[in-house]
Amino acid sequence: MKNCDSYKELISQQLDGEINEDQAIELAEHLASCPECRQFKQSMVALHEDLLKLPEIELTESIVDQLLADKRIVISEKKSIFRKKNWKPYYGVAAAAIILIMLIPLLPLMNQQKADFSADSAENFAMVAEEAEDSNQRLFTASAPELDTDIPSGGTENQEKSTQIVGTVDYGLPVDVTIAEDSSEKLPAAQQAAIYTINTNEEGNQLIIYKENVEDFRTAKWTKELSLHIESIDGQYVTYALYNADNTLNAKYQINLLEKQEIKIN
Amino acid sequence: MNQEDLIQMAKAGDREAIINLLKSVESAVYKTAFYYMGNEHDAKDAAQDALIRIYTKIDTFQERAKFSTWAQRITANICMDKFRKKKNEISIDGAELTVQEDFNLEQAIENKLMIKELNELILVLPENLRATMILRYFHEFSYQEISEALSLPLNTVKSYLFRAREQLQKHYQQGGVHL
Q: A91 — phi, psi (to 5°)?
């Protein structure tokens, strides 16, 4: 031990009880002759004591119970988690942008959280693949029946072309929906149309609705084993389904964009 | 039933076992999330994600580590990710902390200021320093346990705790009087 910095570090270790006898003696000798380190120790001890006084953070309601009460969170008897190896054959292919189109049939493998197929670079896609691989996340299906032509898809030309090839229209997220809010009697017919954007959260396990780019509503979260399928967007109603890992239907929900609520449907 | 049995059963897919395991760590997970994220809302969100992650990853858990240490590792990683994403929109609300009721009024006010100040200072610590401080002070982890939970060498843990304290001490006013 030579300089004061080393002794200061020992002071910190002493507060944690992670100092041996020899070190303790050496430190005590130094402190006897160094007013600066004595002062430092004093303020460190004061800080340490105050940190120890911080109150216990109590959890008032069990988070696990909340998860269990939510039908979308499936804690199942037998787990079936999406495995890395399923990805491998497609992962390398994703490197070339042109091949993206060929991947359309594989859309069920695409991670919802970045399911905006408008993502125009293969690099982006590869990143999605890598992330998904990392977290073993169950990925999402994004194919859906025909969209109303007056609903902007939020996609790029690339997406439109792609979807034409396979003959379906995909709800790549985020998707914008325009609703004239005159369906309610309270609002004048001349009420201007509002643009709602539907996207998922970062983890891809919750839908978030933005109204004019301001967050308006969030659905409850679901476990990552479940796959999301946006079934339809019809006026103010967005219907989405969650599928189990074995592709059986888990639950179907309808969001009412205007009333900011969702209900479970059959 | 001991924890090893529970872990084995959870790995085999037993629902009750995984629920019991998750419940055994949820308070600790939430506590870390609270001090890491700085408010109740984000803490619950992070804790929920951490518990789901623990559930989905239980089959990768290696028994040579302690389950509680492993759970803290997952929690710390999730908090770090979330905090980074939220960096620009942190709100600090000291009022969300409940001061213990057995303080008299004067003490309560004094402590409330202290609690608020310390929490704010912890929140602005660099993420690794913050994580080590949380495990040290709110979970009483040893250097060895912190090293395992955060995958850091022992010497780094030592030095992080020192730097964290140094930084806190530099700005800590303790009710207006600089130390």
A: -60, -50
Is the same domain home to A23 and A71?
Answer: no
ipTM: 0.83
CB A121 within 8 A of CB A97: yes
Q: Is-cis flag, bond preceding A145, omega within 30? A: no
Say whether both B32 and B78 belong to one domain. Answer: yes
On whether both B80 and B133 belong to a single domain, the answer is: no
The residue segments making up the domain with residue B160 are 102-179
Which tokens belong to B167? 């930084």
What is the CA B118 to chain-centroid distance, rounded? 15
Q: Say yes or no for a CB contact (<8 Å) between A47 and B47.
A: no
Condensed to tens digits (0 to 9), the pLDDT of residues A181-205 reads: 544 444 444 445 778 888 888 888 8
CATH number, domain of B20, equals: 1.10.1740.10
Q: Could you tell me if A223 lies within 8 Å of chain B, comparing CB atoms?
A: yes
Q: Is residue A103, in this structure, part of any structural domain at all?
A: yes
Q: Which residues of A touch B133 (CB under 8 A)?
A: 51
